[in-house]
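Go through this pair.

…
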Amino acid sequence: MDNKVIQSARELSVRVVREAGLIAKEKFDNFIEVRSKDEFGDVVTEVDFLAEDIIIKQIQATFPEHQIHSEEAGAIGAQSDWLWLIDPLDGTNNFAIGLPVFSTSITLMYRREPVLGVVYEPLTDRLFVSMIGQGTTCNNRPIQMKSNPNIFKGNIGWIQGHKVQNDIRAVKLRQYIDIKFKRMMRLWAPTLQWCMLAKGDIDGIVLYNSEGDDLYSGILMVKEAGGIVIDFEGNPFTGMNEEPYIIACHPAHKEDLIRMVREGLRS
């Protein structure tokens, strides 16, 4: 792994994510096209494509040998140790209904592990950056996970994949979490929930089968901020998984959340 590549990628990502975010900010409540993306209710707007085009072109110009996978364009380029994951507008459904909760996410993977994550929230001008072994920052200030003396009086984020819909096990677990904790949060913009966890604004995340271009930037944010990311069995979550089932939290809350998930799935 070449640290110079990661540093150069960081500089590029910070620049282009702001450019893409500016488009989203200017077009918010002022876009023209929105259409259905699939049978699960997901949508896509002109902004997704405009932002995506900016990001892809600049990555290709600087790292032509790297592979890219983007939310709308799919896979681009030959297979490589280096893989860019792009979600040009995470929270498109929010954007489309005028809810100001969305971001742009860029991740650089090396041999299927995230080494750089950049998330930009344009309406608040918050830039989250995480580099492997270098911690996580928000607007250049280091951020750190926090523990809650009483986790069950805390706020837990819930993330599920589009295809999950009303899967009975997911519904049971979601309802159990909703009752068990002070608040269960569903933002429809997963990268922002991951950033909130890294920043200490929420206390944990339970993710039910939601893999995509918006996942791995958030995982790196949390790990580099001192958090843990594990599967439902309590094993460290590493690499890439097409059907991930994940718990993320401060290390002090590991056993509590594993137990809670098991109870929820049995309920």
The mean pLDDT is 94. The CA atoms of residues 30 and 98 lie 9 Å apart. The longest helix spans residues 3-27. The chain has seven helices and 15 strands.
